[in-house]
Amino acid sequence: MQPRVTSLGLLIKPNPADTFEYPHHIDRASLDALPSKPGIYIFRDENDRPLYIGKSINIRTRVLSHLRTPEEARMLQQSSHVEFQRTAGDIGALLLESRLIKEMQPLHNKKLRRTREMCSLRLGAHVKSVPEVVYARDLDFACTTDLYGLFATRRAAQEKLREIVEMQMLCPGLTGLEAATRGRACFAHQISRCLGACVGVETAQEHYRRLKAALNEMRVMIWPYEGAMGIVEECDGWKQTHVVDHWAYLGSIDHAKGRKPVKRPARRAFDVDTYKILVKPMLRGELFIQPVRL
Fold first, then answer.
1. pLDDT tens digits, residue range 82-103?
2. CA gap 147, 22 in Å, rounded
3. Angle at CA 169, nearest 5°, toward 163 and 172?
4. Where is the GIY-YIG domain (predicted)?
5. What is the domain class of 14-104 according to CATH?
């Protein structure tokens, strides 16, 4: 349906719901098999290619909500059937979803489909230190101290630093955002947007303290353990242990099968999605964590 113009000259865009049809072509048996339990689900096409991967604490309810969503008509039209994989909890579902999206590259998971190369801001311990952009390819973010924020691009890191400098009335010259001339006021100070560390009105120590305090709001937490740890989840008597080492998800142990299908990778890599999934519940003490042997 094309946009149309009314007699009053108003442009009316088509409503997806007007042309949406319930996807009866999706295999009914695959839908009937969906459990009302935590896990991931995969929409696949007739050639078994993955179209979309999602997660939920209730797989059945979440998948059925997709089927009633006109905005997802294109993905649904391509779908032939839905498969699922149970997990013992929400953390396991989040970790598995993140891993499978990277491995399988489904067409409609655009946000998480590519493995991102992260960068961060690092601030040294000296009061005259300037924040610098550093990359995960050069440093192990899981054990590097004094990192602030995780960004997909250098530009994003610098834009965040500029936002902090403006909000806190810090000096753009002393934070590396513009060229600084010793003894000369920066432009921000000339328009009363800098407290004057560039000309000695504010001490270097106080400027550094305020900068670090502002950056601390987004400090990257180093891995707080010596090695791999297991995050235990249980559902209806079924227990899984999700193995994580230095913010890298290695896999899950299914205790019902009596085996450990998790091996230490040849090269451990900090994974930003695993970090974002785990860091807040870990800091809040919401996770049951115990050592594991690989």
1. 999 999 999 999 999 999 999 9
2. 49
3. 70
4. 36-110
5. alpha beta
